[in-house]
Amino acid sequence: MSRRLEIFKGFRIDVTALFTRCMPTSIFIIVFLLFGLTSPRFLQPESLLNIAKQASYIGIAALGMTLVLITGGVDLSLGSTVYLSTIVAGLLMRDYGMSPVAASFVCLLAGAGIGGFNAFFITRFKILPFVVTLATMIAGRGLGLLLTKSRALEFPAVILKVGGFKLFGFLPLPILLFALSATAIQLFLSRIPLGRHYYAVGFNAENARRAGLPVDRIIASAYVLCGICASLGGLVAVTQLGIVNAGFGKGDEFDAIAAAVLGGAALSGGVGSAFPGTVIGALMIRMIWSGLVSAKINLYFQPMIFAVILFLAVMLDTRRNMIIARQRRKIISLRKDKQT
User: Fold this and answer.
1) Are 264 and 23 within 8 A, CB to CB?
2) Which whole-number Å values give the CA distances from 327 to 1, 16, 28, 204, 277, in the listed order?
3) What's the distance, Cα to Cα, between the start and end of the chain in Å?
4) Are 100 and 158 in contact (CB under 8 A)?
5) How distant, in Å, are the alpha carbons of 17, 61, 118, 165 from that of 220?
């Protein structure tokens, strides 16, 4: 039920719609103020810049996950894509003398290829995305370990220099890439017909098919873009670490899902945004971890507190989706009444 509140005479706002629209941002502000009051060191510019820098890696990967979630799917192979695609780039540079630029391009192609592999089995054989991407997750991790013999792979020193680059002397390259990626994905979702079709497919794939949309191609493009975002995120992480070991990217798929959901994406599909949605979600994850450290919370309690915050956010997301679904049914009902 919609609840309207009269601010002053003749001006009313829909409280339910406002609550639904601003929930991710509201949670972000509450968490930010909570940690800011707990630890003043948390609010220092250097600390905030560091949070944004650390969030860049998983944030870029989460942008791709957001696209898949909007279409109603999920990509559990994201972490393995991060690992395997960067392994390919590292081996090309170390063993074949390929330039960092060319190797980075191949890395993105590898990510697109893994995404295309997932999309082929999901759209061609109608296998559940959970099953396909779970298999790819396991196989991709195994192939990466086979290629490196489970040894850490060091990247050339120039990669670390690239990661240390700052635009105008203060804006780190990872944050810049994160901002550009979020802007591009948001424009894609809001301005490009293919991006807008993602919402139609995620809300009701059958209705989208009846409306003449190429549903399988739309879903396939989401997985390919997710693979590219995952590999780009991996490259950003490598520019900060300079090395890839066996644990690189492990569990990133869950952080990416958490970032997208915290930013307002619905696990049921049809809802989500890159900006401010996933950007806020990725920043919130890093902010929570950084805030727990700044507040000197016991190391063993930190994962539990993080899990509680994540659980509450998902619970609120479920409530939000129920409100959105009810509003959509109401709009459809009103349209039918007008037609009759």
Assistant:
1) yes
2) 8, 10, 24, 15, 20
3) 23
4) yes
5) 32, 17, 8, 35
- Residues of 309-339 as b/e, b for ≥16 C-beta within 10 angstroms? bbeebeebbeebbebbeeeeeeeeeeeeeee
Cβ proximity of 64 and 225 under 8 Å: yes
How do residues 307-316 score in pLDDT, each as one tens digit?
Answer: 887 777 677 7
DSSP string of 48-73, one letter each residue: HHHHHHHHHHHHHHHHHHHHHHHTT-
Token readout for 140 is 């991709």
pLDDT tens, residue by residue, 162-211: 878 888 878 899 999 999 999 999 999 999 999 999 999 998 899 999 99
Q: In this structure, what token pair is assigned to residue 222?
A: 């989401």
Which residues make beta-bridge pairs with 12?
6
Rounded-to-10 torsion of CA 42, 47, 48, 50: -140
User: Dmax of the chain from CA atoms?
Assistant: 73
CB-based contacts of 65, cutoff 8 Å, min separation 6: 74, 75, 78, 226, 229, 253, 256, 257, 259, 260, 278
Global model pTM greater than 0.70? yes
> CA-to-CA distance for 309 and 290, rounded, in angstroms?
14
Task: Give the long-range contacts of residues 324-327, CB within 8 A, separation 24 or more.
Answer: 324/20, 324/266, 324/271, 327/2, 327/16, 327/17, 327/20
Name the residue with tokens 């406002």. 18
Q: Rg of the chain's alpha carbons, rounded to an integer?
A: 21
SS3 244: strand
- Distance of CA 104 to CAs 136, 158, 227, 244, 271, Å? 22, 13, 14, 14, 32
Give dist(CA 339, CA 291) in Å, integer: 54
